[in-house]
Amino acid sequence: MTVAARTLTDQEQRERRAWFRARWERGVAFNRRCRIRVTRWEADGVEIVLPYAESLSAHEDVFHGGVISALIDTAGAGAVIAGHDFTKGSRLSTVSMSVQYLAPARGREAVAYARCVRRGGRVHFADVDVRTDGRLCARGQVVVTISGERPGVGDPIEPLNEE
To answer: Which of 4, 8, 17, 93 makes the best surface tag, with the fewest CB within 10 Å?
Structure first.
């Protein structure tokens, strides 16, 4: 049985995009714990900053590769949802990801630049570059699906606790 898509106004689309932007920083526990900041959230791409912390390191002053991989996943999925047509659903899941580490991720912060390169009916593709101190250290491709409705879309998101 096929469920008819819900028609959303332009304002409702904007509100959902804004809600997901806030969720990326404050609503996802992992992102909060890593202190991820969204510095750009547009339909044509996103920029996400991950500050260095010893708890995220592999070696002194170097981000762990798994953390860089998680940043790629977070930014790639963000690039898809930031320009998504929510009449097609809001439940996002990563189905595939590839990462190429190009240099040690050494610096005060890692910055992911992501853009959605193909939007499909349910399957969407994003490319992500990660830079530390202005130097390209990793590149990735993220494939996500969006279908169905994510529970809680539009619910209040708690403010960040500045500790």
So the answer is: 4
